[in-house]
Each structure stands twice: as structure tokens, then as C-alpha cells.
Design brief:
By secondary structure, this protein is mostly beta strands. It has strands at 4-7, 10-13, 18-24, 32-39, 46-51, 58-60, 68-73, 78-83, 92-100, 108-109, 113-118. Strands 2, 4, 5, 6, 9, 10 and 11 form a seven-stranded mixed beta sheet that branches. 33% of the residues are buried.
Amino acid sequence: QVQLVESGGGLVQAGGSLRLSCAASERTFSSYAMGWFRQAPGKERELAAAISGSGSSTYYADSVKGRFTISRSNAKNTVYLQMNSLKPEDTAVYFCSARPQGGTTYDYWGQGTQVTVSS
């Protein structure tokens, strides 16, 4: 069982930056691909960014490409999401999630952290 704990959310003005962190309990952290999902009120949860177990491969949704950067430290069992040039439409609850390497689904979820971007 992988336990995930997010931190770093908050209130920021449009154009500002935030850095989210997600600490994992799993000792074999590098064997999990990690994703940052977000869910805005009244909308479906969407995958914003993802990173492979080694960190060599990343994915970004078109809506965040060029503004968000996902990274990880396998030594610290932590994945990060650096969010720059934030927009009001980035307002959402952000969740980190873990997918076993070779698996097809994200099986483990954190509790979420609120990000609010004011205009």
C-alpha cells in the first residue's frame, strides 16, 4: 500500500507561482510512475502532468504545457509540480497519484491540496 501526502497548495494571484510536493511512503518509489491530477468544481478530474519512475519521461496536458514542470527525487520519495504563470482556470484540487510501472491505472491517491488562483 502506497501512502501519498500532498503539500504546497494555497492562494496565489494570477501570474504567480506555486510548488506542490507529494511525499510517498513506498520504499520502491522508483518503481511507480507518478501523476498530478486536478479537479475543478463541476468538472471531471484530469491528468495535468506525469513522470516515469526514472524521471526520464514526462507528460503534460496541453493546458499546462510550458507553465508546469513535474519532477521527482527518488532519494527523497517525493514528486513535485512547479506551477508558473498561474491562471484563474488553474484553480482546482490537485491530487498526486501512483501507477505501478507496467500498470495501466493509477491505483494510489493522496488526499488532495487546494490551489486557488485569483484574478
